[in-house]
Write a structure and sequence with these properties.
Elements lengths: L29 H26 L6 H13 L8 H19 L10 H4 L6 H8 L11 H26 L5 H13 L7 H30 L5 E4 L7 E5 L3 H11 L5 E4 L10 H4 L4 E4 L7 H4 L6 E4 L15 E4 L8 E3 L1 E2 L2 E2 L2 H10 L10 E4 L3 H6 L1 H9 L5 E7 L8 H9 L4 E6 L13 E2 L2 E2 L1 E5 L4 H15 L8 E6 L3 H12 L6 E3 L8 H11 L2 E2 L3 H11 L1
Parallel strand pairs: 2-3, 2-5, 3-4, 5-6, 6-7, 11-12, 11-16, 12-15, 16-17, 17-18
Antiparallel strand pairs: 1-10, 8-9, 13-14
Helix pairs in contact: 1-3, 1-5, 1-7, 2-6, 6-7, 6-8, 6-17, 7-8, 8-17
Amino acid sequence: MIQTDMFCFQCEQTAGGKGCTKVGVCGKDSRVATLQDLLLYQLKGIAYLGSKILAEGKKIDEGTTKFMMDALFSTLTNVNFDEKRFVRYILEADSVKENLKNQVSNLDNLPAAVYYRPPEDVEKMIADGKKVGILADDIDDDIRSLRELLIYGLKGMAAYAHHAYRLGYKDDDVNNFFFTALAKTLDSNLSAEELYNLCMELGKKNFRCMEILDKAHTETFGHPRPTEVLISKKKGPFIIVSGHDLKDLKDLLEQTEGKGINIYTHGEMLPAHGYPELKKYKHLVGNYGGAWQDQQKEFDGIPGCILMTTNCLQKPRDSYKDRIFTTGVVGFDGVAHIEEVNGKKDFTPIIQKALELGGWQEDEEEKKILVGFAHNTVLGVANKIIEAVKSGQIKHFFLIGGCDGAKPGRNYYTEFAEKTPKDTLILTLACGKYRFNKKDFGSIGEFPRLLDVGQCNDAYSAIIIAIELAKAFGVDVNDLPLTLVLSWFEQKAVAILLTLLSLGIKNIYLGPSLPAFVSPNILQVLVERFNIKPISNPENDLNEILSKK
């Protein structure tokens, strides 16, 4: 095992494109990173016991499943930086694991992760965590690569399952896969091909998980509709809501109604404005700022509050640390946290703080952008889209989206969007759209050239649009005049990529850099089977794409 303060390479911005060894580029310190490693080790033990319970024809209780998805979600990039919270997770994992042991008929000859009991002392926990990290096992690089690919996909799917569960939607097949798949990462006898097949199976399970989340959102809040969103400031007290959790936004809107507080979305919460059951609240006034990586600058000293509902959180500056609040699995040491008690959250502290701060003193000149082009809207005019393609009005579709990030190289996506021909449509989703979503791309007939499909949780919408258009044209998705140009950053993007590959979608352009955890041999397999292409420069890539179509 290589001895370092930590080792993490789960996100795109990892140090030197190889791995963070002293402190995470995300801001995660080595102590938190090591505690996350120990928590994951605990979860593997839980998963192994859960897989045995399932093999015996029994069910895993709902509390254990919820803990599994929430604990996995907590280790996602830019979610939780709070050491004390991870200590509690590790100790809770021990209780969960001991409970599962009582349900298994035979506890002989099981992996060490099953038997491990954590100490109460945090320093001893950290010492143990250093023994079970990514590089702890002396295994083949390709096996490690596929294991990590599987684990990061599971982390991403856990985030989607978490959001669906909060709205009362779940699927036993998806939930059970967390246990059976994570348990396989303890099996040293699995071949590379078996692990690869598990990754493809995860992609299919994640497609189902995203379908459930889409159903949860649309049945709870209605189907998104094209909606103009204010992107300038309004006078008065305010709360900015960031992250992905629409239930938190709805609950806050209910609790602030009539109190004279304006609510703004931020980052991935922007698509909330398209949902009928959310847009009916008149004090949901607009969207503030851009993508997550600009939050330290955008939140600096603002006279209002911020609620972080999920990733992506950065280390808060002192100028706003007293007015940023976390909730759910999100956390940062010294930041006020709003707990869920008996299924409800009391947002009184953030409401009182917003009123105290007073907000902006005057209105800005109004500026607006358009959102709300989810699958129900787009497919509702599919016949017109098909006619526009057949008549030559629309020559090509580009899906330009994914995660944004701070590392250089992401201007590629802005330049690519700007250089797309005027007779092409751009679909976009996730926070990558902030690179270009305030630009005017014009229109083709009645269609805006830029169609905002939603947040990363809405990747299902984009996939369904492609699948249904392919059916309407009587062709395979890969034969559509459609190119996916994706930016990735964290583990939800890994889960989405595995979903796309599991559906057989090829010729994806991926950037700004390739995952450090994918070994050269595994990358070669993905290139050979799916023709994944690293981005080069906008002109070359556009010429290559359009010359083939």
